[in-house]
Design the sequence.
């Protein structure tokens, strides 16, 4: 007995099955075509196309080949267009596949429904009993399954190794092996297509025995101290009040004076009761840590030069040379100008570690107690006067500006302070420079601002990504940039003074140029900005103040002194340290007004450090601490 | 041409016009100079206010219609139409998101304090549950795009032994517990990540998920709605609430003639026979029940302990733990390269100590969560055992409120329903007579 009689008359179910078969065949054909499109689209991927990869390889050998660049662009565009076309086809194919598959399924459903005859009622058997048997069976099966699961769990527990929680640094993770990252393997952020490996000729840079957690000082801590060249962020501004009159020779306001073992032109750092300074000879490079209150030398961190330092004219220590050659005959010799000296680069501290770099390219990290953590050898390339840029810090990163005469090797590095691992590397289209980077909290976020021939450039501090660049600073760029209130300033004698707004993207040479100055341009001394004025000081002693907003000159003063040290600002006073050891204290503002003066024994090449009410000045073979403390 | 055809043609033309109006040209991309500053990648904005409200309105409307069609009108064709519309809207137009099943992850994450739950997601999560309390699982029947996808391909469903379905059905509980645990601990939205049909809705996706989707559809030809019956975590919640629903699908609109045709119609094995006989040995039954009740805490405790012991397996599911393990291994020199995640960590100047602390906290959370998961599964098994042992009194053939997906297939098979629909009570009387003879 049946309820429906659909099978009588025209066999609609057969028509439905035929339609399903036809739709299925069409769907299969579409599936094959779509698959072909998919494979072809994969082959047309510009990222993986072998021909393009080959061209890119060629470009890495000839970076200036504009014709090759054009060819790559054209072929990449053609591939992208083809890929887009194939993907469009694939999308259409997928929709058609879906449609015909759905049609086939629906036709099959209709066919089955039409064909199926509703069965006759069947009240035979005992469904309730059957149901009860099924339930019993399910119960027993479930008990069996639960038992089986428990048995499996027990077996797994016994067989599998027990999972141990992650151990904190200082445990097995920290001590079981070298604790620095494989810096060479970390991808780099470059503005050129070819990534450059981090220059680390040492086979195993890991020297850390105990890993400290990555930690960094707060902004407040940084502001209280003097952590890098020209203080917090390199902005040459200190908190607090400082002596305005002193005389080291007459012990006036002199807290202490201590001999520095080795020569150098680097500036001191101050961090929570400790003063750091570098010095070097041709056989050793040293980082000194003095007690800020007493001047006592607490420790010396030594780093042998990995490259050979050329003899100076007055030096003829033949036995010393022979000894060096014997120790490391394969060492290459660096170029180094006598004026640059053996320790011109100011070290830096992130408050947890202290980092020093030398013209030999040796970058070394110590903890605050003098324990050496790691060292690296930077590829300093060819630098006619010697590598002299100072280090900067941002959070736990030590920032290295490494500009060489070979533009493909100039780069900005971010290196993890704790481990020495490279966090980023950004190639700079810059020839050799001697300026140092600064770190500024701009309205668009923290930026590393660095200058060289021919660009003043801003980088995102987090990853070193270039944000903007402005032309044109040229010649042997030595003064470091200044920053205040969203404006970056850079200058170089024979070039110009640029005032650039830092919220731009890309080339901002014209779009974000606030103003440009052309007179009284310094050649060594870095400018200083206090938000209202930008102060420049030539090495010949011409001191000038420009209005920060429009570059209008407020005043110009000839100081009749030579200057190498950069001015610093504290309590609305500018501290100008002359090469002869005399310091002028001038009120900041639009009018020149001397408010104090001091003197130590010169020559003074290094910029003074100001922290906790004390002024630290590197003089002739000495470090002076000027303070009104008794 | 009939008016209906005119109407359908007009709708089709309007739909195509709307698609053309809303489309944007994506290719070809502009040719950019080498120094062009590339824009920063951004997270796509969520669906805007009015359109989100439209989604909610469509959900509520389809739920209401599905309930009316299933319970009041008892009309399978209208239910099918609603199902196909939902498949088109929630599946292919909305690309499977937002959906109540995936919303389990959102709700869990929000309850854990992970984020503020969007109101739309909350409505999507709650509305089908509320509907289940009123009319049973009509969401499964006509609104869920995943269910619709499987329903369409259920061509030759076969009966699966009751015991086997009961055992396999435990997977849904496990999946629910895992999904909640992973979302709660911020380890990910497993349900969305492993949605087997989203690849179809989006016409793209990972090969493994596409393969799983195809396999489920292939199985679904013979075993109707395998995902719904064996895996769906939201189905667990609907199953629970449907047991106490106010109205539900009833096979026959009047007295059941016990023809058993509905058993043949139901592809989900959800029809339960009447219980005419009384249990013969009530004392034995009580004894077994007592044993099962005693077993419940044992199973719960065993599940909790076993799962806690194996919780280390779950650690790998958490990205923070994975990253910490990787970074620690890289720092220990076990790897000579970095992963994308570890590289991003270094570039963000991440604090390793803080990362380790976070990872350890996640491990503790996952271990605690695994304990609860094990206890939950032990309890579920215990309750299932008790449920299987307990007899429920049924006068007629009835759809199991928990297992019934409210598809309405049984309506047209039921002679009583057909007689009421056509007025042909003579045939019904004949069938009654035939049934009583057999």
Sequence:
């Amino acid at each position: 007995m049946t309820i429906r009689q659909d099978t009588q008359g025209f066999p609609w179910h057969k028509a439905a099955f035929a339609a399903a078969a036809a739709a299925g065949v069409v769907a299969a054909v579409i599936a094959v075509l779509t698959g072909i499109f998919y494979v072809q689209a994969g082959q047309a991927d510009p990222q993986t196309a072998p021909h393009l990869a080959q061209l890119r390889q060629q470009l890495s050998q000839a970076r200036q080949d504009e014709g090759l660049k054009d060819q790559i662009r054209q072929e990449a565009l053609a591939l992208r267009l083809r890929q887009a076309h194939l993907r469009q086809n694939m999308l259409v194919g997928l929709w058609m596949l879906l449609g015909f598959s759905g049609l086939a399924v629906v036709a099959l459903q209709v066919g089955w429904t039409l064909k199926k005859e509703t069965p006759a009622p069947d009240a035979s058997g005992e469904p309730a009993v059957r149901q009860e048997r099924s339930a019993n069976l399910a119960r027993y099966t479930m008990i069996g399954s639960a038992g089986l699961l428990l048995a499996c769990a027990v077996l797994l527990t016994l067989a599998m190794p027990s999972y141990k929680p992650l151990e904190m640094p200082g445990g097995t993770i920290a001590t079981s092996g070298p604790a620095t990252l494989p810096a060479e393997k970390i991808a780099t952020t470059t503005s050129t297509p070819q990534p450059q490996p981090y220059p680390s000729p040492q086979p195993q840079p890991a020297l850390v025995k105990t890993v400290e957690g990555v930690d960094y000082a707060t902004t407040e801590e940084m502001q209280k101290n003097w952590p890098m060249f020209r203080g917090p962020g390199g902005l040459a501004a200190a908190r607090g009040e400082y002596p305005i009159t002193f005389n080291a020779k007459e012990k006036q306001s002199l807290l202490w004076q201590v001999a520095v073992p080795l020569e150098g032109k680097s500036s001191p750092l101050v961090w929570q009761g400790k003063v750091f300074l570098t010095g070097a000879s041709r056989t050793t490079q040293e980082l000194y840590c003095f007690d800020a209150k007493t001047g006592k030398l607490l420790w010396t961190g030594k780093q042998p030069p990995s490259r050979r330092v050329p003899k100076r004219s007055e030096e003829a220590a033949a036995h010393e040379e022979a000894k060096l050659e014997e120790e490391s005959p394969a060492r290459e010799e660096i170029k180094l100008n006598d004026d640059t000296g053996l320790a011109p680069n100011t070290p830096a501290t992130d408050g947890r570690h202290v980092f020093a770099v030398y013209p030999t390219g040796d970058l070394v990290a110590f903890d605050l107690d003098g324990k050496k953590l790691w060292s690296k050898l930077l590829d300093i390339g060819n630098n006619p006067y010697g590598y002299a840029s100072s280090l900067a810090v941002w959070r736990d990163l030590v920032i290295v500006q490494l500009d060489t005469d070979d533009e493909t090797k100039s780069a900005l590095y971010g290196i993890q302070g704790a481990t020495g691992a490279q966090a980023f590397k950004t190639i700079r289209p810059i020839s050799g420079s001697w300026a140092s980077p600064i770190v500024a909290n701009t309205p668009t976020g923290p930026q590393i601002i660095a200058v060289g021939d021919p660009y003043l450039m801003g980088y995102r501090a987090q990853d070193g990504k270039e944000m903007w660049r402005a032309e044109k600073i040229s010649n042997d760029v030595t003064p470091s940039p200044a920053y205040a209130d969203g404006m970056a300033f850079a200058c170089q004698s024979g070039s110009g003074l640029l005032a650039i707004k830092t919220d731009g993207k890309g080339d901002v040479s014209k779009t974000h140029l606030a103003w440009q100055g052309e007179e009284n341009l310094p050649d060594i001394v870095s400018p200083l900005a206090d938000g209202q004025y930008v102060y420049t000081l030539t090495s010949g002693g011409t001191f000038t103040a420009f209005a920060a907003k429009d570059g209008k000159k407020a005043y110009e003063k000839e100081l009749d002194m030579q200057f190498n040290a950069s001015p610093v600002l504290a309590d609305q006073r500018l501290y100008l340290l002359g090469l002869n050891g005399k310091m002028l204290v001038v009120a900041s503002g639009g009018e020149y007004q001397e408010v104090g003066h001091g003197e130590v024994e010169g020559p003074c090449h290094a910029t003074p450090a100001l922290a906790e009410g004390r002024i630290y000045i590197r003089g002739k073979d000495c470090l002076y601490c000027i303070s009104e403390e008794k | 041409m009939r008016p209906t055809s005119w109407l359908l043609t007009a709708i089709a033309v309007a739909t195509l016009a709307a698609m053309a109006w809303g489309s944007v040209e994506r290719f070809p991309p502009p040719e950019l100079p080498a120094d062009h500053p590339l824009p920063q990648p951004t997270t796509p904005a969520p669906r805007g206010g009015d359109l989100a409200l439209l989604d909610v309105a469509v959900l509520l409307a389809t739920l209401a219609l599905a309930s009316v069609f299933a319970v009041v009108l008892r009309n399978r064709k209208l239910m099918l139409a609603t199902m196909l519309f939902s498949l088109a809207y929630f599946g292919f137009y909305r690309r499977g998101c937002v959906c109540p099943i995936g919303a389990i992850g959102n709700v869990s994450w929000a309850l854990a304090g992970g984020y503020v739950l969007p109101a739309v997601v909350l409505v999507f999560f709650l509305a089908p549950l509320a509907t289940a309390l009123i009319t049973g699982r009509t969401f499964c029947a006509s609104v869920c795009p995943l269910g619709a996808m499987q329903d369409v391909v259920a061509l030759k469903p076969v009966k699966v032994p009751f015991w086997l379905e009961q055992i396999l059905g435990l997977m849904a509980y496990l999946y629910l517990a895992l999904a909640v645990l992973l979302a709660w601990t911020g380890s990910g939205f497993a349900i969305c990540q492993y949605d087997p049909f989203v690849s179809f809705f989006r016409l793209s996706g990972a090969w493994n998920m596409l393969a799983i989707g195809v396999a489920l559809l292939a199985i679904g030809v013979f075993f109707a709605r395998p995902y719904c019956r064996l895996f769906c975590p939201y189905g667990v919640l609907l199953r629970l609430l449907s047991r106490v629903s106010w109205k539900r699908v009833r096979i026959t609109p009047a007295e059941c003639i016990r023809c058993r045709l509905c058993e043949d119609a139901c592809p989900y094995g959800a029809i339960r026979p009447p219980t005419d006989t009384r249990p013969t040995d009530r004392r034995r039954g009580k004894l077994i029940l007592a044993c099962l009740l005693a077993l419940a805490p044992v199973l719960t405790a065993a599940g909790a302990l076993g799962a806690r012991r194996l919780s280390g397996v779950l650690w790998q599911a958490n990205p923070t733990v994975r990253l910490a393990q990787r970074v620690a291994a890289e720092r220990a020199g076990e790897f000579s390269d970095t992963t994308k995640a570890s590289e991003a960590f270094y570039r963000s100047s991440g604090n390793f100590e803080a990362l380790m602390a976070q990872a350890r906290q996640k491990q503790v959370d996952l271990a605690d969560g695994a304990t609860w998961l094990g206890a939950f599964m032990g309890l579920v098994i215990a309750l299932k055992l008790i449920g299987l042992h307990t007899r429920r009194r049924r006068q007629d053939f009835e759809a199991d409120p928990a297992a019934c997906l409210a598809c309405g297939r049984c309506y047209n098979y039921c002679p009583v329903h057909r007689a009421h629909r056509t007025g042909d009570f003579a045939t019904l009387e004949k069938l009654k007579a035939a049934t009583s003879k057999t």
Summary: Chain A touches chain B through 90 residues (CB under 8 Å). Confidence is low (pLDDT under 50) at residues 1-7, 168-213, 316-330 of chain A.
